[in-house]
Amino acid sequence: MPTYLVRARDTKGNARRERVNANTPSEARTAMREQGLFVQEISEDKGLLDRLNSFDLSEIQTAMTSVSIKDKAIFSRQFAVLINAGVAMVRGLGVLSDQCSNPKMKKALQEISADVQQGTNLSDAMRKHPKCFDGLYVSMVQAGEVGGVLDEVMNRLAKLMEDVARLQNQIKSAMTYPVVVGSIAVLIFLGMTVFLLPIFADIFDKLNAPLPAFTQLMITLSKFLRSFYVVFLVVAIVVIVFAYNRFYSTNVGRLTMDGFFLKMPLFGDLIQKTATARFCRTFGALSRSGVPILTALEIVRDTAGNQVISNAIDEARKEVQTGGMISLALQKEQVFPGMAIQMISIGEETGEIDTMLMKVADFYEDEVEQAVKSLTSIMEPIMIVVLGGMVGSILVAMYLPIFSIMDAIK
Known about the structure:
Number of strands: 3
Oligomer: single chain
Order of helices and strands: EEHEHHHHHHHHHHHHHHHHH
């Protein structure tokens, strides 16, 4: 009698995996229903050889795929349109899961649709998939369900995801140029040092020409890069990166490094403005959707992206919990710009803090855009000079001995 693997959920919505001995899949499904389980998937339990023959890379692909902000924004916008058009929630989830191109999100939507069909709230079903829908997303969906404005909340989520994605793309575009140019410069330098410079070094040896100090230094560097000792350099770099990651994974390390990043020239101001824009945009969207302030502050704290700023938001949450004002608590921490705190204070006094937060977010997103443009304009000539300097140093090292030889001949 064959054995079947059954993936099901019990009456409380908990996932269950069972093995059932039955003649047919129908008998296995019936046996599960008699135990009060809702069958989601059923497959035959094959032997090891059969599993190897039927090995599928789709599960590995699904596990390695990540859900981007763009994927969530598209889903939110489409889901809002379907809900607003009167399409049933389960049907809408089914339609979106069928046309979803991201395998991880497709699988999550299928499971969410099955949970909702069994009577689970949409927010509770989404909470089971934190890699696809984080706490911010789930809290806003829950507020939309409670308030009966799920389509409006989904539109706000789509707008929020689009704004966050646009902000990230601006920063990535600013970093792409220096990273690409720097990588090309390093590759050219290593290529000329390892392959080209030794040819000239052999020529100089045959001519018994006296080598200038700079040329001798570059030849010594070339010999080192072509020797076994370069392995120790690679190992040292790997150890340093590993030690940094371990240090940053600790609370003290994250707090120390994030504080250092905020004080960096050029980049520190950009990080502060980006964090301010993210805080105001996220907090404003949560408040406008009806999420309680304390819950909203907890979510924003966890999504701040900088430990120093997260600690400041947590202190503000504690201050609000005891009856204080958000603006005064943030002012004590001295993390956010003064103008942002003043505008938040005005929003608290007028009772329109969500509107004021959105205006602050718009302002600082424009500031980030301008800062990115300024940073790019500064980095371009610097990277050109660096590239020219690295290539020029090799050329100088090769031609200096030639001038010495010509002087000796004269």
